[in-house]
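Chapter summary example.
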Amino acid sequence: MAELILVGTVHGDPQGYQRAWKCLECWRPSLITVEISPFSLRYRQRHGPAWRRQFQRASSQLPPGARQHLALRRIEAQLAWPFEAQAAQDYAQQHNIGWRAIDSGRLSRSQLRRYHSELLTPKNFHNLLLTEDGDWGQYISTEYRQAHLALGHPKRFAFPCRYLWTSPSMLRRDRIMARRLRALAQVASPVVHLGGWTHLLTGTGLTTLAQHLADLKPQRWLLDQF
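The structure predicted for these 226 residues follows.
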């Protein structure tokens, strides 16, 4: 049986690249997969500079210090090139192995096209400043703590998980990614997959990526363990 390692990340983790590199050095994979679609990579490469300029213009209209608000920091993280993809690409190039973007582009096609008209507007930024604030580093740490709790005690996390996964597109994405991972695991081993930690959940009554692949007995890790 192929060795399959599913590594759960918190998107936007400022230490994510270094952690991902340590993870890959630990497992020495023959192939790396990432929870991102080829469409998203192309679209981000094409529109990323314009997004960042629009972010700068919109945030310049805010009160001093407002850019440090947690909601604005989260938007900056959304605009950044995903560390999972960058680490996979760099590691694969250095070690002469392959990497694949295996997510479906269906969701990103609708979401990314709304960045210019909805996400990155002064009106949206002013509304976001009315939401609860917090420390960015603490937010990332809290996400990882929640991930550890959810993976260790899935029944306690069943209700929040159902709330997170109300969209049929989320379950469809995991079905597609699982099919692609299964096919790749037949020709390469070990395979390391980097993706959001909620896709690693099992025992919640929902068919997540990890649940789809349960017969392959994948190892499940969280990125902050590296």
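To summarize the output: Residues 38-59 form the longest helix (22 residues).
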